[in-house]
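REQUEST FORM: STRUCTURE PREDICTION
Request ID: SP-0412
Submitted by: Lab K.M.
Chain count: 1
Length (residues): 76
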Amino acid sequence: MPHVDIKCFPRDLNEEQQAALAADITDVIFRHFNSKESSVSVALRQVAQEEWKGQVWDKEIAPQMEQLIKKPGYSM
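STATUS: Completed
RESULT:
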């Protein structure tokens, strides 16, 4: 049951763009994990730039740096 949790700075994505993003991510998960489309879930949480360090970097990125399969090209 792959679950993808995307956090990003606020974007003005309409429902069609969000659906296209979810479809693309689902395709990648299917291709690499051979998962059923119905087993994939995708979340999109927009985080204000001024809150990124406290909500995302400090809690999720920095403590899990060794587990990241794609590390960020920035540091905080």
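NOTES: The first helix runs from residue 15 to 33.
Reviewed by: T.R.
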